[in-house]
Amino acid sequence: MKIPPLRIGDLTVPLPIIQGGMGVRVSLARLVAAVANEGGIGTIAAVGLGDIEASKLDFERACREAFIYEIRRAKGLTKGPIAVNILGVLSNARDLIETAVREGIKFIVSGASLPLRLPEMTEDPSVNLVPIISSGRAADIVLRTWDKRYRRTADAVILEGPLAGGHLGFSIEQLQEPERYALALLLPEVLAAVKPFEDKYGRKIPVIAAGGIYTGTDIARILEAGASGVQMATRFVCTPECEVAPEFKRAYLEAREEDIVIIRSPVGLPGRAIRNRFLRSLEAGAREKIKCPYHCLATCNVAEARYCIALALVNAYQGNMEKGLVFCGQNAYRCDRIISVHDLIAELKAEIEAY
Questions:
Q1: pTM score
Q2: Same domain as 113, residue 169
Q3: Structural domain tally of the chain?
Q4: Of 131, 159, 181, 208, which is most buried, counting CB atoms within 10 Å of its CB?
C-alpha cells in the first residue's frame, strides 16, 4: 500500500497517524514533537498538567500556566503540527481551549463526553475542531448540533473503538462484547453519518480510527476500509521520548493480557487500565482519603469516590505504583521493548507499505 497523506482542513501531513493525547502527563512536549517531526501529528493532553499543590490555591491558573509551558516547549522542538486534547468534562475546559487558541494551536480534539458546545469556545474558523465519538449515532448528534447551533461542521472526527485506553465511550456491558463494536463494524456507520454534512459543507470530513490499532498492517486494513487516518497512543508509551517514569513503562512491558482490565472510574465512565498493586488494593476494599479543593472534573463524584483519579494518575506518571493508576489500551501487553519514535514510525511505515 502506498501511504496516503492525511488532510484535515487546510492541514496536510505525509503520515496518516495522530499520536493520541494521553493524560495525565503521558503525552508531553518531547513525545508530541518527536511524532510531528516524523510526519504525523503530535497531541498534548491538557488534563492534569498543573502542579497539585499550586492547583489547591488556584486550579485554573496552575493548569493554564502548565499548559502554556508544554505548548511552547513542543513548539520549540518541532515545526510540525501540534494538536491538543481537552476533555469535555474538565471544569476548566473553556479556559484551556481559549488558551490553546491564544497560543496558536490549530487542532483541538475533545472527547470524554459529546463536545456539543466546542464551537462556541472558539470562533476562529482556522482552528480545526475534532470531536471524539464512539458510534455513528454519536457522530450524527454532534454534527447535527454543530450545524444547527453554530452553522459549522467538524474538520474531522475520531472514531474511538472499545479497545482504546483510558476513559471509554462504551458501557461496561458493551465492553464485555467488544467484537460487537469492533472498528470495522463501527466505521461504515460513521462514514455514513458524516456524509450528509460533507455534502452540505462541500468538503471531506476525515474519519480517524482509534482503539486497538497496533501494527502497520492494522493501519493499512482500516485505511483500506475507508478511514482517512488512525490515532495511536499505547504504542508511544514505551519510547524514550515519552516522559513518564521508568516504572510506568515497566508496567506495560511486564503486563500480561489478563492484567488489562476494565475499571469503574470516579469520573462516571468505564476505563481500561493495568491491574497493579494499586488496583488490587481497591479490589480488596481499600479507600483513599480524598481532599478535593479544585474539582477538576465536572462529573467526578467526590463523595462516593474511593480515590482521586487525578492524583492516582500523577502518581503513576511519577513512578509511585503503590498509589498509581496506569491507563492503557487493550494491546499494552504486546509492548515488549523500548523503541524510539523514529524507529517505531519506520517500522509502522514498512508494514503499511508491505500490505
A1: 0.96
A2: yes
A3: 2
A4: 159
